[in-house]
Amino acid sequence: xxxxxxxxxxxxxxxxxxxxxxxxxxxxxxxxxxxxxxxxxxxxxxxxxxxxxxxxxxxxxxxxxxxxxxxxxxxxxxxxxxxxxxxxxxxxxxxxxxxxxxxxxxxxxxxxxxxxxxxxxxxxxxxxxxxxxxxxxxxxxxxxxxxxxxxxxxxxxxxxxxxxxxxxxxxxxxxxxxxxxxxxxxxxxxxxxxxxxxxxxxxxxxxxxxxxxxxxxxxxxxxxxxxxxxxxxxxxxxxxxxxxxxxxxx
Length: 250
Ligand SMILES: NC(=O)c1ccc[n+]([C@@H]2O[C@H](COP(=O)([O-])OP(=O)(O)OC[C@H]3O[C@@H](n4cnc5c(N)ncnc54)[C@H](OP(=O)(O)O)[C@@H]3O)[C@@H](O)[C@H]2O)c1
Fold this sequence. Notes:
This protein is α/β, with parallel strands linked by helices.
């Protein structure tokens, strides 16, 4: 098992890509802290699935956009496990609107979860990573480099995530903490339910060389790689996991 004995936090792990990563980490021997904001039932189901497969996991509520919640989350990790080896920043929201319709509220909501939330988690995680360092994995998006229509604010949050990734890889290298991002393509999750139907879906599929939409199980092995010693010489990278999509995908 590639993550035997590792302690890993996955934010937004009650659903979708985060849940897939949490399950894969559990199967690879990590103890997984399954973070969620409001979906306790979803987080509990992920914990049960990991335990049923012989792994270790615990659900911890924290809204990543709230500093007090994040501080409490990582204090709990320290108290319960003594250290942290892997942080996956995954909790994210997307609001697709044309610029003329974007409110300040929608702008700040996305930046507060997708950028401030990632940053706060990293800041607090730095207090818990041990002397052997670790791995930070930021879930970005292909929209970071290839934004499509009505995604200006969401795409900008992911651009910020990738820039933060490069900057922190430099800053945290001396502590043996590697920082990388994964850019998923169009992936079937509750967040995208219905988005890939109709004419848009046909166009997106036509622009996907591997010929189907992604699943959380397609993204999870990439996260396992970046969390494991197999990627010990990889930091400051943005890795696309998108079935080959380039450009806007259509
Ligand atoms: N699906 C795609 O096509 C796609 C493509 C590229 C990138 N991504 C990125 O992948 C990540 C996961 O997306 P997904 O499609 O798997 O979405 P999802 O199924 O909606 O899952 C989102 C997760 O984030 C959690 N979350 C939301 N706000 C939170 C907050 N303030 N604090 C803590 N947790 C919070 C949710 O938990 P609660 O329900 O408990 O709030 C849920 O577990 C996001 O960063 C997204 O931008 C997705």
